[in-house]
Design brief:
Elements: E1 2-5, E2 10-14, H1 28-40, E3 49-51, H2 54-57, E4 71-73, H3 74-83, H4 87-97, H5 101-114, H6 137-147, H7 154-157, E5 161-164, E6 169-172, E7 184-192, E8 196-205, E9 208-210
Antiparallel strand pairs: 1-2, 3-4, 5-6, 7-8, 8-9
């Protein structure tokens, strides 16, 4: 665990902060960071269309059951990834921005190095259990603090309940703190057999922002 004051980066509390562990869908913090950076750079737009590949549709785990060839806007793909932790949408976004998920994952690892995340190795973009896919509480805080510099992400991570596919698919946020914690703004949960249950949470109260 680690607790950080986001504006200064000061660590307020830590416990085994550099212990390398499986991280489940907290992985998607880096995925969403690269997506937000691609938006800022104008390489993608929120209203452009993403087409699901067979690979993306085959992910399993938490997903919105994309079908091969199904099309959805970048905006809705981000929403599904951030709110419902959709593994299929995370991969579809990765393939949309780069030529393949492998190329996207290579960029995830490059970005991790740029941010000084020395405990992290990404093997995929959605956090499904895979040998050698590891990070630490400290590194999660680093990428989380970087992601929330993109204030647009809170438009997604603060959603409790929403719909996709013209109302046909309902999504509920995996972050239950949205219903119980005063000031919560996000950010991402994760659960797999190897990782157990994990969360990176962001909150702001009385001008104090924590991650």
């Amino acid at each position: 665990a680690v607790l950080v004051e986001t504006t200064t980066g000061k660590i307020l509390f830590e416990k085994n902060a550099h212990e390398q562990r499986a991280c489940a869908s907290i992985t998607k913090v880096m995925t969403l960071l690269l997506v937000m950076e691609a938006l800022d750079e104008g390489r993608i737009t929120l209203d452009e269309t993403v087409t699901s590949s067979y690979h993306a549709a085959s992910m399993g785990g938490s997903d919105i059951w994309l079908e091969e060839g199904e099309q959805m806007s970048v905006d809705d793909m981000i929403k599904a990834t951030a709110v419902a932790s959709a593994n299929d949408c995370a991969v579809a976004l990765a393939e949309h921005i780069y030529a393949s998920e492998d190329d996207f994952v290579a960029k995830m690892n490059d970005r991790a190095k740029e941010l000084g995340m020395k405990d992290t190795v990404f093997k995929n973009c959605n956090g499904l259990d895979e040998e050698g896919h590891i990070t630490s509480a400290y590194d999660v805080s680093v990428m989380s603090c970087e992601l929330i510099k993109h204030k647009k992400i809170f438009d997604y991570t603060s959603i409790w309940l929403d719909n996709l596919r013209g109302g046909e698919t309902q999504i509920v946020n995996t972050n239950k703190l949205l219903k119980t914690y005063n000031g919560i703004t996000g950010l991402k949960t994760g659960t797999t057999s190897q990782a157990g249950s994990c969360i990176t949470a962001t909150a702001e109260r009385n001008g104090l922002s924590l991650c």
